[in-house]
UniProtKB/TrEMBL annotation, chain A:
Enzyme class, first EC level, given as a word: transferase
UniProt source species: Aggregatimonas sangjinii
Enzyme Commission designation: 2.1.3.2
Biochemical pathway: Pyrimidine metabolism; UMP biosynthesis via de novo pathway; (S)-dihydroorotate from bicarbonate: step 2/3
Lineage of source species: Bacteria, Pseudomonadati, Bacteroidota, Flavobacteriia, Flavobacteriales
Protein name, per record: Aspartate carbamoyltransferase
Gene: pyrB
Recorded catalytic activity of this chain's protein: carbamoyl phosphate + L-aspartate = N-carbamoyl-L-aspartate + phosphate + H(+)
UniProtKB/TrEMBL annotation, chain B:
Protein name: Bifunctional pyr operon transcriptional regulator/uracil phosphoribosyltransferase PyrR
PANTHER family xrefs: BIFUNCTIONAL PROTEIN PYRR (PTHR11608:SF0)
Keyword Methyltransferase: no
Keyword Heme: no
Domain of life per record: Bacteria
Cross-referenced Pfam families: Pribosyltran
Gene3D superfamilies attached to this UniProt entry: 3.40.50.2020
Enzyme Commission no: 2.4.2.9
Amino acid sequence: MSNELSVKHLLGIKYLKESDIQLIFETADHFKEVINRSIKKVPSLRDITIANIFFENSTRTKLSFELAEKRLSADVINFSASQSSVKKGETLIDTVSNILSMKVDMVVMRHPNPGAGIFLSKHVEASIINAGDGAHEHPTQALLDSYSIREKLGGVSGKNVVIVGDILHSRVALSNIFALKLQGANVKVCGPKTLIPKHIESLGVEVETNLKKALNWCDVANMLRIQNERLDISYFPTTREYTQQFGVNKKLLNELDKEIVIMHPGPINRGVEITSDVADSKQSIILDQVENGVAIRMAVIYLLASKIKQ
Amino acid sequence: MGQKVLLSSKEINIILHRLACQLLENHLDFKDTVLIGIQPRGTFVAQRLVKILREEYKVKEVKAGFLDITFYRDDFRRGDKPLEATQTKIDFIIEDKNVVLIDDVLYTGRSINAALTAIQSFGRPKDVELLTLIDRRFSRHLPIQPNYRGRQVDAINNEKVRVMWKENDGKDEIYLIDR
């Protein structure tokens, strides 16, 4: 296996090969060992400067990236659109070009518009990591999700994974579908018909609108958040009704004749997608996902940085 | 590309025994001493020494671990090939211990420099010594010298020392290769 990524930027899982994912996972294994030491820092990236540019609110992704960068000893600058000249009408390229003139080597960007990272990668020299672009992709989340499945079940290939919830607005769902299919998993999506995009079957996934059937079929259920902020019209009658049909609770899990793994990319609406007793149960690997997020992001940054030659 | 045999299997074995004896003289029962093989190839030397100490000199317990120094190297992004990490396995406390770093070939000293930084991520050792099977003197970039050396070699810059191990390469032999 090559020890080099086939891409210069991480814009989406769509642009990766299966071997890239394996390389990221193997590198993350080493970083996972590093972040469990008493001194969790390595000096690899001490001459690299990374800008975290967030045009959209984020807590855990931003913190996770920042922690990953600091544990690799990179210099980090943070930028959030709400406190910047973007409000005064500055364009994306101008904003980023200004930041890059401060000798920044890598940009981690979250943007509300799909394709923002791809657009930027065509105009600037620095390596771009997409930290979520609208409803398009969120590659590091999908990588850490697959990595967590691999860690829990020993592999991804051949596993049955159902993604439940708002598939239509979810970049996590799309990146997860790409990542899981690339690694040979079987994928179903489950949610109200109004929140499942048309022609999603063309990505090689099946649609299931009955949650119980989906849970009976799967090894892993990845529960997505209802993104109220993206729902411009009403896609289902009430939250209560959504919960009744697509929420996972302990009673539902106990009725299954097997133990499935519960995942959630966060933030959780407790009592909506999953109840607290499920989120905090042994079956849930939600906190493992958060820990693995740092190791995966360290691996991605490290591997992309190794392509920036001095 | 020519090559000549620097050390045969028998000679390697004699040297390893001598090094084990030198370690014994200084560390007696190894109660406060840990051996750390530097990945990838220093681990072979460390494992052989542990075997000799346990089986032939009846040292009850010798703590040994592997240290990967990839993330601590100062040539990250300078080489043609990306650096590939290997496994670190240190499941004991380093704090206040006598640490013996072990590698197969000491050349520029940069790997040992990285290892000295890396080992501090596991605690503050009481002291650190260096054991190397082959010491390529006159090639150092940093002021680093071994406390225990197997064989000193004068190799010019385009020559390479290649250490082969039975476990990995099918035989024990050390070559000087002219590139």
